[in-house]
Amino acid sequence: MTIAHRFGTYEIAFETLSAVGEAVGDRRAFVITDRNVESHWRQSLPKAWPTLSVEPGELSKSPDVYVAALEWLASVGADRRSVIVALGGGVVGDLAGFVAATYMRGIDYIQAPTTLLAQVDSSVGGKVAIDLAAGKNLAGAFYPPIRVSIDLETLGTLPARHIRNGMAEVLKYGFIEDPDLLKVSAQVDEATIRKCLEIKARIVEADEFETTGERAKLNFGHTIGHAIEKVLGYQELLHGEAIAIGMVVETRIAESMGLAKRGLAKEVEAILSRHELPVSHPVLSNAEALIGAMMRDKKAVGSQIAMSLVAEFGQCKLIPSISRGVMEDALRLSA
Ligand SMILES: NC(=O)c1ccc[n+]([C@@H]2O[C@H](COP(=O)([O-])OP(=O)(O)OC[C@H]3O[C@@H](n4cnc5c(N)ncnc54)[C@H](O)[C@@H]3O)[C@@H](O)[C@H]2O)c1
Ligand SMILES: [Zn+2]
Questions:
Q1: In what helix (H) or strand (E) does residue 34 lie, and over which residues does it extend?
Q2: Nearest Cα to 42, choosing from 151, 121, 126, 128?
Q3: How far is CA 216 from CA 56, 209, 286, 289, 319, in A?
Q4: Maximum distance among all alpha carbons in the chain?
Q5: Which ligand sits closest to the CA of 122?
Q6: Gap from CA of 246 to ligand 2 centroid (Å)
Q7: 239 alpha carbon to ligand 2 midpoint, in Å?
Q8: What is the pLDDT of residue 266?
Q9: Nearest C-alpha neighbor of 42 from the set 157, 187, 174, 180
């Protein structure tokens, strides 16, 4: 699968990690990974490649770790022709991608995603970022990789909760575009990941910099989901779990606005529950905090809260302004 962007194109390849060596060729490669992934998968890449292994988890998307990674590249002699290999989940991909975007004003990098979430979503599209104290992903860039190498074997060591986490994004593609994806089993295969990436590829190619509203479709469940994550302080729920709840609440909003038929939110709930994803949480009774968090989101424009809502499975609509009352009712009904 080939993705086109402003500078050219890159390939998404389903291949073993050992194939990354061929993609790098005679250039020098530098691996950025985390300790969990290192212990399971680092040995699949050439031994000689210098490796920086960060602590697993979101806290590694910090300015401190980012600067430490830049200093490390300088200390091991990475130059403009070097290639960074981001071996890991979305945390490593976002961090290493932003390091690649800024080291010597930008060097090439390869995404080697090892979580389901990274394979169906974060490794493709060129959004890279770190977090600031003021919020998540506040420093970043649109900076596409030169290749995305997906090795399905890596999912074999991924904890079940993280498989479900990625499944929430798979189901999101089902709700917004391809209802066939709503029938997937817990055992994801290459065909499923391909379908998701084809949807993501088409959307990011149509709207690389999130300006036309097309890319906003991918945010179904995310306006509420991000607010939940923020109010809970990024503890307790994983991203996919928060957006699962967000998809239910947002479908209730679509119902109450007359955009979706009555009962669609219940259907969304049933599908998510089949995959053991949460569909409610006590935090939903704190409408004040959630709406406050949505207004401060970087995607909010002025005080308008936009949402990408599903009208029926496979059909999505961007609504630029959702009223406070409608949100409060949907949150109350979902709590
Ligand atoms: N750039 C984008 O477009 C985009 C899109 C969605 C999410 N994201 C970002 O992605 C991040 C979340 O990514 P994630 O869910 O992949 O989390 P993650 O990178 O933290 O990985 C989840 C956990 O699984 C471990 N792990 C990873 N691969 C493994 C494997 N194969 N075997 C065993 N353990 C493994 C990690 O060490 C970690 O503990 C967030 O920071 C989010 O902002 C970015
Ligand atoms: Zn997401």
A1: strand 29-34
A2: 151
A3: 29, 10, 25, 23, 10
A4: 61
A5: 1
A6: 11
A7: 7
A8: 98
A9: 157
Q: Is the Cα dihedral 123, 167, 197, 151 positive or negative?
A: positive
* Tens digit of each residue's pLDDT (9 = 90 or more) over 259-317: 999 999 999 999 999 999 999 999 999 999 999 999 988 777 777 899 999 999 999 99
Mean pLDDT score, 157-164: 97
Q: Is the C-beta atom of 162 inside 6 A of ligand 1?
A: yes
Q: Whose C-alpha lies nearest to ligand 1, atom 18?
A: 89
- Say if residues 192 and 178 touch (Cβ distance below 8 Å): no
Locate the ligand 1 atom nearest the alpha carbon of residue 61 and give its number: 41
Q: Which ligand is nearest to the CA of 59?
A: 1
User: Atom 25 of ligand 1 has which residue's CA nearest to it?
Assistant: 36
Whether 228 is in the pocket of ligand 1, judged by its Cβ within 6 Å, is no
Residues 32-59: tens digit of each pLDDT: 999 999 999 999 999 999 999 999 999 9
Per-residue pLDDT tens over the stretch 184-230: 988 899 999 999 999 999 998 888 888 888 888 999 999 999 999 99
Residue 154: the pLDDT is: 98
d(CA 257, CA 323): 10
Closest Cα to atom 7 of ligand 1: 122
| Closest ligand to residue 136's CA | 1
Strand partners, 208: none
Query: Is the CB of 215 inside a 6 Å radius of any atom of ligand 1?
Result: no
